[in-house]
Amino acid sequence: MWFKNLRIFQLTQDINLDAEFVEQQLAEFSFRPCGSQELSSTGWYSPFKQGDALTHSAAGFLWLNLRKQERLLPAAVVNTELQEKVEKIEAETGSPVGKKQQQEFKEEIINKLLPQAFLKHGDVQGFISIEEGLIVVDTSSDTKAELFLAMLRKALGSLPVVPLANRSISPDLTDWLANDNANEQFELLDEAELQHPGEQASIVKCKNQDLHAEEIQLHIEAGKEVQKIAVTWDESLSMLLQEDLAVKRLKFADTVKEQNDDIPKEEKLARMDADFVLMAGEINRLVLAMKSIFDFSRD
């Protein structure tokens, strides 16, 4: 349940985020398994992975979970069967099979194989910080984040939202590294990626490296800027922070996760609820700190 990646968005207008209202709106778009002739199916699913509730509200946060199920039908399997069919017909008739007819055969083969295809599903979790008007999605993929927002917009009818960062923070991160003046809440670790603006091939990736070493400073002096950097924040979280404010490889310190250890293991739902509140609260604090430090005030 603990989020590992963050895509952060800011609501630009007030909308109705009452838990009961959101639950009702999501119900129309709840997840249902793929039909026999469907390639995929997407919908809202219980954050607890059980029960009928599609949302969980606690401490001013609204927890959501989007599930997508897909049928695995490799193109190579379809193409092999199509090739065999075409070769058989051409051998019997002595005439080539045209592209239009091949496409029809391909669709027939897909329809025949789909019900037999394996199914896989994946979930994308997120939460809404109602007071701060933030939407945080646990994914490293822009595509999945946009799908999450699109499905939420479809359910609510409106979702005026923009990425929290309206500019690159690369100059800030580069300054942290070049002048050893990272914000006091952040500590630089031993991993970074630097790139020269406008030169996609000019990338330097550092791992298990003293970022204050002379060779790193030389790259900065040559015009390279920090695109990603590993940091800890407030002795609570560690992460790989990107220039677009996306967060990857988010980890919570043991001192944070152990705060709910007094809840008995058999009380799974109570523990999940407490962990969610704890996790969302820490992420919310992080986002508010980043808003203050990097100043994303909009025109």
Commentary on this structure:
This protein is an alpha+beta fold. The chain folds into three domains: 115 residues, no CATH class; 41 residues, no CATH class; 125 residues, no CATH class. Helices cover 36% and strands 27% of the residues. It has eight helices and twelve strands. The strands form two sheets. Strands 1, 2, 3, 4, 5, 6 and 7 form a seven-stranded antiparallel β-sheet that branches. A hairpin with a 4-residue loop joins strand 11 and strand 12. The two termini are 36 Å apart.
Question: So how many helices?
Answer: 8
Topology as H/E string? EHEEEHHEEHEHEEHEEEHH
The residue ranges in which pLDDT falls below 50 over 5 or more consecutive positions are: none
Largest sheet: 7 strands, antiparallel
Quickly count the domains. Answer: 3
Radius of gyration equals 24 Å
- Tell me, briefly, the overall form: globular
Mean pLDDT: 94
β content, as a range? 25-35%
State the share of residues found in helices, binned by percent.
Answer: 25-40%
> How far apart are the termini?
36 Å
Structural class, from secondary structure content? alpha+beta
How many DSSP-defined strands?
A: 12
